[in-house]
Amino acid sequence: MQLLRHPIYALFCLASCGYVFWANASGYSPFFASRSTATRTPGTTGARFIHK
Amino acid sequence: MRSYDCPSCGATLKFESSIAVSAVCSYCTALIVRRDLDVESLGKIAQLPPDLSPLQIGTTGNCRGTGFRLAGRLRWHWSGGSWTEWFAECTDGGYGWLAETQGFYTFSRETTAHTLPPIGLVSAGQTPTIGDTDWEVIDIKEAECVAAEGELPEVLPPGRRRTSADLQTAGARFATLEDGPNGTEMFEGHFARFEELSFMNLRAVPYWTPGVEGERIERKASTFGCPNCAAPVEVRAAGLSMSIVCGSCGTIIDTSDEKHRMLENAADKIRAVAPKIPIGKRGTFRGTEYEVVGFMRRSDGFGEWSEYLLFNPWHGFDWLVSSSGHWTFVERLLDPPSTGVAGVPPGYRPFANYNSNVVGVLGEFYWQTSTSELTQVSDFVHPPSVLSREVYPGLAEITWSKGDYVPGAEVSAAFGEGALEPVTGTYLNQPNPWQEKWQRLKRLFFVGALLLLLVQIFSPGGGSPREVLKTGFTYRKSDASRVFSSDVIVLDGRASKVEIEATSNLVNAWMSLDFSLVEEGTETRYDQEIDLEYYSGVDSDGSWTEGSKSKSSAIAAVPPGKYRLMVQAEADPKLIIQGFTVRLERGGTFFSNFILCLFFLSIYPLYVLMRSAIFEQRRWSQSDLGGTSGAASSSSDD
Hints:
By secondary structure, chain A is mainly alpha-helical. Chain A is built from three helices and one strand. Chain A has helices at 2-5, 7-26, 45-48; one strand at 37-38. Helix content of chain B is 11%, strand content 47%. The chains are: A mainly alpha, B mainly beta.
């Protein structure tokens, strides 16, 4: 009955649950962006960092 | 049953009741008393005026388990009106009285179990204890028997007068004290509505009961000439109506008997009003067909409102009250609510105390109305209901009524579109639509939030994070690059969160660490920055610290692969050499996803609650008891 009275809100609840499920499964968070940037510069990596 | 010949006209007179000692001859209206085998006439008695009562001699009924049959009736008249009392022969061999007044009934039977006060010592407003019961005397009056019909259990010669006091107490209990030949007599019983008395063998009510062919039985003439202007005045609730306003000249006329004396000239009060629902309009409202028989425009000094008196011969009287386009259906309570020490009915909140006076008046009423009528009203609200306690100065009578908010559409469906007017403001018992919305929404909100929490706890990736790196580095100011790299870290499984924790034993210094988690194959970088600072000291307030020696930050959705953690360090110039440790954890979930979704889920419920609070604030701003302004419960109508 509750679902029928507020179908859009109920869908929103389900969508939120789906989002949390997906985000947790993929380790994603909008507040901790991965900053995944492809900066492939062959041959330069070793020069930029000095291994301890 | 015994039959006699009427000593007055010779017609056959039947005594069906074994209790009855007198009867009125239906042919010549002589009051006949039977004595053993003989009968005697005490003279003629007036016939009852035509009325719209659905009861008749022979009607049967049942009041709280006591069956009865109506065998006769009396009409009593006093200075404030008149009423009918039916002689009810009970199935247990005794008898009682069924009084018909103001659209409801009282059924009472004589009780001799108590010591009773002399009627002369009883006054309205007293609260005598009789037997084990605390009663309240609601009125006291001297009445005269003016008409009779059928059989009667006592001999009441025409013109017989009596003093009686009406009492009430909780549980809709009713009693009458009367001055009898042997002192005070008490009749005890209950208030009742038509629906509670299981009547059978009712009579057809003129103009109300559908006839055989579905047509209304023609109304018997209940019209008379105004004693002031001679214009025809039609009584719509004959028998129950105690006063009527002449629509032509505004004279208020006494309709409690057929003398129709003038009570007051209210010409200025009828010019001031124009009811939206005309007097005489009929409509079916909440399953009952009503006729609008009276209209009052009232004021409390701050605003005005309209009151329509509705009549149905079986159901009695009810009210429709209109204020600022808001409608309330009001029924009189026969069983007043318990109010406790505070005087407030349980579940209700006091809203306003005010004096109500008459601004305009039209139609007829079940009491002798007056334009100077003043009522002290206390309203208690529990939307959509309102309980009103009305006190009439000069009378000890206190009445309670219960109103329920009615959508305007319901009123217009019953009485036509003309009844409606624009709705303005928030009314005292108007249901809060936002509160209703919240009531419907809250379960869904809490279920949604719980579901969200369960998903957060049990979704994949929700396992405990595991440490994949713990290593230490040493920052040296003298180093040119100050860049460090970890060993290769193997991150397996699915893409997930990586948390970096940096710790350094700083003393009044800072350190800024730029991390890059670099995938060895693709050289894809995942950057994060942690700034550490820690200061401490002592001042006049004592010792203090600021900052932290350890901080962590996370990188989201790092796919599996072989990585190195690169760190570029900057530090306070005063630091020459400073060690720091870095710890990496793989796995776990971000709580922020849950918080974010919970926030979005809460927006609409919070909006609804906010609107609900605003609505209540507007309602209570009109209250002189619970709000902030001093205005009374009503607001301007037109």
